[in-house]
Amino acid sequence: MQTAKSLLAGTALWAAVWGAAQAGTVEGTATYRERIAVPPGATLFVELQDVSLADAPAVTLAAQRYALTGVPAQFALTYDDALIQDRHRYVVRASVHQDGKMLFTTDTAYPVLTNDAGNSVDLVMVKVQERGAAMLENTQWVATEVNGVALDTEKRPQITFAEGGAFGGTGGCNRFSGQAEISGKSMSFPDNMAATLMACPPPLDEVEREFLAALPKVASFVQRGDTLVLLDAAGEPVLQFRRDQ
């Protein structure tokens, strides 16, 4: 009986040690530049994501929500080492929420783990704009990232906003237009929009398909200077643009 108990105890200890050996941690701080106090009841949401695949949404490997009382705030995300592949690309993103509203968010990718990026990162978030459609009226933008992956094609998708949320543009080959709903920081595009149907040569066909598929996922936006980031319902960037004019 004693031998059996010892064997079970040894097995449990081995399992605990093995599990600990397989766990990795990404840690760091999150802050914002504005000199304003953290609102009461605010929370910090931090995610570790795999953004390697251009034709698929980011995969969340670890996430944690913290009560936020001040910045910079420290965070630590524990992940399974077995999920990490040397050739993949991993980033950490963060956002601050209060009463269901996103107040701050990262608007750039912060790489970790692979390509000599390390496991520590300091995140800087930007304030989510509240001016709504008016701030986008009569502006034109060129896409620089789709689903967290930088575009390197000669021709890139473009979008132009007119008054009242009207928009139009090109996916790099075909033209499209429609009416977006923009209120405060919220933004949504119609599932079906008017578009031409020309055949596109590679790699423009894949870029255009991914771009048009990303538009209906948009739920909010962040603008800082000449950069516009469109975010999904989880606060994750799906499209990033630079101002064209």
From TrEMBL:
A family per Pfam: YscW
Transmembrane segments: none
This protein's UniProt keywords: Signal
Keyword Signal listed: yes
Residue ranges of domain DUF306 in the record: 134-242
Signal peptide from the UniProt entry: 1-23
Name this protein carries in UniProt: Heat-inducible protein
